[in-house]
Design a protein that fits this description.
2 copies of one chain form a homodimer. Chain A is an alpha+beta fold and about 190 residues long. Chain A has a domain of about 110 residues: Sandwich (Jelly Rolls), CATH 2.60.120.10. The first copy, chain A, is about 50% helix and about 25% strand. Chain A has 9 helices and 8 strands. Chains A and B meet through β5, α3 and α5 of A and β5, α3 and α5 of B.
Amino acid sequence: MEEKLRDHIKKIVLLTDDELSYVLLHFSLAAYKKNEFLIQQGENVDNCYFVVSGLLKLVYNDKEGKQHIVSFAMEDWWESDFSAYFTQSKAKMSLQCIEDTMVYSLSLKNYQKLSAKLPKMEHFFLQKSNLGFIASQNRILSFLTSNAKERYEQLLKQYPLLFQRVSKTLLASYLGVSRETLSRFSS
Amino acid sequence: MEEKLRDHIKKIVLLTDDELSYVLLHFSLAAYKKNEFLIQQGENVDNCYFVVSGLLKLVYNDKEGKQHIVSFAMEDWWESDFSAYFTQSKAKMSLQCIEDTMVYSLSLKNYQKLSAKLPKMEHFFLQKSNLGFIASQNRILSFLTSNAKERYEQLLKQYPLLFQRVSKTLLASYLGVSRETLSRFSS
């Protein structure tokens, strides 16, 4: 398991073995079953998560009980309700397992500690944050410029494997269309 | 002018006078007239910008010549086509002045240099990036969960001053609705 996180960090910064051991002390490994929640809407957000294996959805449930998927998270992705995590406010979204999932969790206190103690890790977090920011700027752009069918095709092209692991109902909720509309795209 | 940038950085990290002087060496101040472009869609993105005064729009022009506003940027905001900036690829969007505007520009080379030489600045950039990431995650959420009228009301509540400075046509383009639809909200 440690190799996954080490290899992931190594793509951005090279840590010595001692530094890596120190970093790993601040993460905890946890296993969740399909349908289990890591974050519950309305509750505290203690951690952000690095996905070792499995698949999750970040969802917002509206007052009518309708589910909106903000993002999926699979192997090598970081996920949380980052707004609630960084500002230590209540979660606006839930993070729930679509498959049995294994994650490394990192508390905000440990995120801040690693950033402060190890410049390499602050650099790593900056790169990840910039990549996350870029991805979300691109998603905003796709909402403004593409219709649901085009967003469907972009997703299929970018993450072909996701389509084999996610139900049509979840895909529709991610794209912001009904299940029936989605069926027309994929037929 | 320097005070604006100094005060902005000071909200997150305290720099000594020497550090601040060093930081300022890496920024250049520039003035642009209303309608001038800082970034042109399809061209290189040399800088990200800290807005000292004025107002800008980050826009995507589609094949039909329709303009989509991804974000506005006013005093104390940072703006760029961050995807193109960080990956040094061609701009997918344009950054254009809505008013006469004064900015501090920062090249990627200087961004990287400041991050590497001054841990305080890497920390500052990490905080800004996380805030930008949070804001865009919130905007994605609002696209999924709110209709155009609700997004209009959220914007009015969050940035009341923007409404006095931006035309109805630009607001409509930001919200992703027609000028006629917008008139119904505000009447």
